[in-house]
Each structure stands twice: as C-alpha cells, then as structure tokens.
TrEMBL record:
Entry-linked InterPro entries: UDP-glycosyltransf_plant, UDP_glucos_trans
Domain of life: Eukaryota
One Gene Ontology molecular-function label: UDP-glucosyltransferase activity
Protein name: Glycosyltransferase
Pfam families assigned: UDPGT (PF00201)
Keywords: Glycosyltransferase, Transferase
Record carries keyword Transferase: yes
PANTHER family the record matches: GLYCOSYLTRANSFERASE, UDP-GLYCOSYLTRANSFERASE 708D1-LIKE
SUPFAM superfamilies, alphabetized: UDP-Glycosyltransferase/glycogen phosphorylase
Amino acid sequence: MSQPSRPFSSAASLPHILLIPSAGMGHLVPFVRLATALSIRRITVSILAARPTVSAAESHLLSSLPSSIPIVDFPLAPLDPSYFPPSSDPFYLHYEALRRSAHLLPPLLSVTGTSFSALIIDVSITSTFLPVASAANIPCFLLFTSSASMFALYSSIPSLSLSSAEFNIAGVLKIPNSSLPPPLRDPTNLFTTQLVDNSRALPLSQGILINTFPALETEVLTAFNSGHIVPGFPPVIAVGPLPPLGNLAEKQPPGASQAMRWLDQQPERSVMYVSFGSRTALPTDQIRELGAGLEMSGCRFLWVVKSTKVDREETGEIEELVGKGYSGRVEGRGLVVREWVEQVAVLGHRAVAGFLSHCGWNSVMEAAAAGVTVLAWPRTADQRVNAALVARRGVGVWPEHWVWEADEGVVAAEEIGNKVREVMRNQRMRETAAKLVAEATVEQDGSSDASKAMLSWPSLSRLLNCPSLR
C-alpha cells in the first residue's frame, strides 16, 4: 500500500522546487542529496516518489527522509510487461512506466495546491516530462546522475554513428566503441530507445546539473559551456560533490553496522573495500574467482557480495556463493557481508585505503571525496567511461581487458590478487587522490564552493529568466 504524501511547507515566501527521480539507488541517492543541499540554501523542496520502488534499498531511503523533505506519491499509469522481452531490466521498465505517466503530473500538482518555482527531473525520463512541464509553463532543470564525460556522450548520441570505432567529442574526449553501454548496440533495446528519445529532448531544459566538480572534469565542462559539444545547449552546471546526509536519510538498516564494527578493529589504511553497487551482480563463477583473488592478495578486505540485480531477490547464504569454508579461511583479515552498507561511512573510515569498484558514478564521487584510490572493474552502462576518467586523473587503475557484462570469460583469481596488491601499495596514486580531496572539499574560494553557489535560488532563477545564458 502506498504511504500517504507528507504535508507541504507553508513558507510561501520561499521558492519551492519539486525533484523527480527515476529508479535505482544510483539515481535516488543523488536526488536526495541534492534536496538536502537545496534545503540548506533556504529552498523548499519536495520529492516525487513512484511506488512501489524496484528495490528495498530505495524504499528504506525514502522512508528515512526527514519531515523537512516532503514526499509526493505519484501513481503510475499501468504498464503491460508483455510488450517487453521477459529479460528486460526491471529498472528500465520502471523508467518506462514513469515516462508513460508524465501526463499525470499536472493534475497531481493541481491537487496539491502548491505552486512550484521549478522542477528538477531525472535525465532518464526527460523525453516525456520536459514537454509536459513546458506545456504547463513550469521551468525545468535536469539532474544527470553520472559524469560530465558520460553526459558528453549522452548528449551527442543523436549526431553520432554508433558503428564508429571511436567517438571523438569536440576534441576533448575520445571514447572507444568498446566503452559504449552494451544495450546501445541493439537499436530495439528499451534502454536505447529511451536514451535516444531523452537526448533529443535535452535542449528544452533551463540547465543540466551534474554531480561533479571542475577539478575532476575541467576540459569537458568548459567545452559544454562554450558550445563546443552541443551548440546552443543549456548551461551545464557542476554541483558536486553533493554532500552525504549522515543520520538524516542514509541511516543503515538493521545489521549493516557489522561492517563498521569490523573496520574499527583494523589498522589504518589497510583495507580494500569491495562493492559493485546496488544493481550490479557478478555471476557465481566470477564471484568465486574474486573471492580467491582477495584471499591470495594477502590484503585485508571488506566485501559486499551481490548475486542478483534486485536486492529483494537475494536468497541463500554467503557460503553458497563464495564457497564452503571461505569465511573461516579469511576470518580476521576479511569480512564478507550481503547487507546494504552506508558506503560514505565505509569510504571515510580511517581503515579503508582502496576501493575495488564497478565505477558507478556515485561510487566514484564518494571515493574522490574520501581520498580513496580505486581499482576499477566496470561491468555495464556508463562505467567504462567513468573508469577511464579515474585512470586519466591518476586516482585509480583500470585493467581495460577485464571482462564486463557484454563479454564472455572470467577474470582469474591470481590476476585479481595482483591488482589488489598493486593498488594498495601505490603511494603515488594515494597522494594524487589526497590532492583531489582538497579540490573536492567545500572551502572558501574552492572550486567546489563556486559550483555549489549555483544551487542558490538567485543563481537558478537567473538561468530561468535569462535565455541568453544558454
């Protein structure tokens, strides 16, 4: 049963922005963080929530939001799954249900009786929500939940030939075809049709917000805002790193503190944290090789193991995945858990020095903000583009031949173990990561501070009222 919508603030003198995320923790988390960042700047915010969510983690996050961030429940139009292949990604199906429900937004807003100053919409649902909002005369910004580098590819899709061996974007970014999200190789794939439709609608927005910061992606951000990537494009605004919410909205579910208690017992900068995010699941044979590689590395590790894309479907015991007797062999040196952990707290812990990551963008930004070096193992979607950025900036290592979901094969334990040791022992890379932290930290006169100034209402309203800024 849907939870009742929370009441709105009566502070009519304050601007009020409605945030509309799509599906998955990789999308919901940055929206919740953005809501907090805006609230700090005396902007009233509400979040539109389409329930039921795909994952339990999303439900938990929404239920833990403070009362200062009201939730508006959004009833989706029925979506007949028989029109889509049985193997369709459940998160993409949720995107589609949202896209096809955009026409329900104006009547819902009229029922609330709230006059919104602007909307901030997830880029994955723009093709239908932007025209509806435009017809209702509601200004719209977009939030892109990956890197500016990935957005350069995303926004250029309508003008690219996807059969090219390499994509040279405005002379500032070269992306090989092998880094293209695998579904884009199939023009009939649901993800592909959504992306192409959404990318064509981008110019209808007043601006695109990206959770990045200038020191990390200087050239790409400059190229966007000088019109070199897409001429006449709306402003692309770096607003990161968006702040974690601590105890307000990213509270850990019961049992998740086991990881923090274990980290408290480990030496400083001794642990490799291993996680492939909230959606990425490794096949069982690769899970076994990864486990063996971590054991062979001789390094301490905290491993969040995941075998299914949707967390509600996780069943069985850890030993069934990693092999009988594994937990006992690594006891004291390694901890394997299945529960959702509060990743910001883990990466910020004094014991953590490295991060074996799929390079989802939230993970990359959290590692950058914590000064933790990355062993990149992208698995799908935008992750190879993000991994290339990590390696280019000198804050991580990406073994480019390691397989991802589009490939057959398994990365061997010995190779994994060697790379884990390499990253954990690389002092120069650790110093580069620490330098990047200084750039990412919010300080007076810092680049991040200048980016976040754009989240003030005067700055956003200037973009709304001055088309010449586009």
